[in-house]
Design brief:
195 residues, alpha+beta, five-stranded antiparallel beta sheet, three-stranded antiparallel beta sheet, 10% helix, globular
């Protein structure tokens, strides 16, 4: 449904009938995610306040570690931009220093619209892993208000992570915030169309 244009997925009743949600694990061997091969990225001082999350794409070629407050205390966003809706992204915005990525050579990027973000996904299995902000350059930003340029500089210090790839995270436990941009980004077309 998310690939249908102008379809309001948030208007759906997630459980329209009295059946409980499907338990895929009941149908056989459960998926066992690969273990992050790197060390714990938290310092000893951070271990008391920050939790270590690990995650990966489906095939395991790209793995990451993230140090963060518990996700129930972190701003989590689901916005209505045209690609995030299609990927069902639930996003957090940690600083680059709070993330370690293993297998980044398997990440492929996709840039569209205003060319300020590169959506990175696994080149093998296609899972959306993260979004890297890009500096669009002086030619584009010269007419931006100073506050927007300042915001860009702060954004460049972060990497947006799709929490759906993190192990042990129940998305029902996060305080999800839906952001509607008044169609600012939801109507931005890709660089091509497929008929």
């Amino acid at each position: 449904l998310r690939t249908l244009r102008h379809f309001d997925v948030w208007a759906l009743d997630p459980y329209p009938n009295p059946k409980p949600p499907m338990n895929g694990a009941a149908y056989g061997t459960t998926y066992v995610p690969p273990k992050f091969p790197g060390p714990d990225i938290r310092t000893e001082a951070e271990k008391g306040e920050l939790k270590l999350y690990t995650g990966n794409c489906h095939c395991g070629a790209v793995m990451l570690a993230l140090k963060s407050k518990p996700l129930s205390e972190v701003f989590v966003m689901e916005d209505d931009c045209s690609i995030c809706v299609r990927n069902a992204n639930l996003l957090i915005y940690p600083e680059n220093t709070h993330i370690a990525i293993h297998g980044s050579e398997h990440l492929t990027g996709y840039v569209f619209g205003q060319r300020t973000y590169e959506h990175r996904f696994c080149s093998i299995c296609g899972v959306s892993v993260c979004i890297k902000p890009l500096d669009p350059g002086e030619e584009i930003t010269k007419d931006w208000p100073s506050e927007r340029r300042k915001e860009l500089m702060e954004t460049l210090k972060t990497t947006t992570i799709n929490i759906r790839i993190l192990q042990g995270v129940d998305v029902r436990d996060v305080k999800e915030v839906k952001i509607e941009r008044d169609n600012e980004m939801s109507s931005v077309p890709p660089l091509y169309t497929v008929d």
